[in-house]
Amino acid sequence: MAGVSRRKLLGTAGATGLVLGAAGGAVGYGARPAEATPLASVGTDEVMFHGKHQSGITQGLQARGHLVAFDLAAGAGRKEAAALMRRWSETARRLMAGEAMTQDDTDVARDAGPSSLTVTFGFGHSFFARTGLAKQRPVALDPLPDFSSDQLDKARSNGDLWVQIGANDALVAFHALRAIQKDAGGAARVRWQMNGFNRSPGATSHPMTARNLMGQLDGTRNPKPTESDFDRRIFVPSSGDPSWMADGSYAVVRRIRMLLDDWERLSVAAQENVIGRRKSNGAALTGGTETTAMDLEKADAQGNLVVPLNAHARITRPDQNGGAAMLRRPFSYHDGFDADGVPDAGLLFVCWQADPLRGFVPVQRKLDRGDALSQFIRHEASGLFAVPGGAAEGEYVGQRLLEG
């Protein structure tokens, strides 16, 4: 199978679908799924590995995701890290193109096309001391502050290296996860790993903002690539400091457990007051559609604000946080039930920004002080990772750092 494209196994029908899928895979952003396409063509969608930015940031949500953090092995340093990133980049390039691994392919994804596979790599705060590159560590990678609502498990937080894998086919996603883990060899070991999912492309009659496990549309006000300040908010500028982070971004990763039993005891009206939006269509309580601007000053006949002061949608608005913005690109998760039948389920929250101190941190601090949603969620794991820009042809991700 080495060197043979999995897409060739799809036959003539797959080749026809590739034209349709290419258009579908090129649109969408953050919390909006890729264009709805016939399920028969989902497997043909391909995302390019090489480019200005790494994949998995601005592409539409994928149906299946894996987040995994690694720690470098004892004695491994800059040389071993560079070799690992070279291996990982080549594996990601091949799998994202629908090709098999160069050797020892498991054939898990043998019958599938690329299925919008993306593989994204990042470096944690501890990576730089381990590799003798402490002077190259960005200030923006300083540890996140403590938040009063945090109940973090340190064993499932942070890490030297972070990999995000997404695809619209579960077997394709697992195949990539297994390949990355095998490629780590003796250079790094898994620190933690989490599995997530989203609605499958084509499951709705038209593209729409995704719903989370609380049933709410999640990501309505996500920044859009068409906005003039999108790149400034989400990506480090080409002249940024340090230079190796040019065109990169910072990922905040949080495992947020949803207390679904408590949430589901609320009436729909009560849930809508917690969020500040209609559950049915995501429209603000002040009226209109999902995209209609929220009227923060509107009051009812009794003089009460229609959108409560502690409503989640009010608190998280950029214009209520000094313009702070982040691109949300989460996965839902469900890890079973405890002995009492309580679901261990919620959100693998991933957000992207040019600077977490101007994106995630100010918003989370404000949420920490009085968000109505806080009594129904629990932050159980956390990580912050520097995600360098994309690799050019012939380069690997992180090469400017590790060989600079």
Automatic annotation (TrEMBL):
Free-text cofactor note: Binds 1 heme b (iron(II)-protoporphyrin IX) group non-covalently per subunit.
Q: Name one GO biological process term.
A: iron import into cell
Q: Which reaction does it catalyse?
A: heme b + 2 H(+) = protoporphyrin IX + Fe(2+)
Enzyme's top EC category: oxidoreductase
Gene Ontology molecular functions: ferrochelatase activity; heme binding; metal ion binding; peroxidase activity
UniProt KW keywords: Heme, Iron, Lyase, Metal-binding, Oxidoreductase, Peroxidase, Signal
Cofactor(s) the protein requires to work: heme b
Record localization: Cell envelope
Query: Which interval of the chain is the signal sequence?
Result: none
User: What are the TM regions of this chain, as residue ranges?
Assistant: none
Its Enzyme Commission number(s) read 1.11.1.-
Role of this protein: Involved in the recovery of exogenous heme iron. Extracts iron from heme while preserving the protoporphyrin ring intact.
Q: Which family does it belong to?
A: Belongs to the DyP-type peroxidase family.
Q: What is this protein called?
A: Deferrochelatase
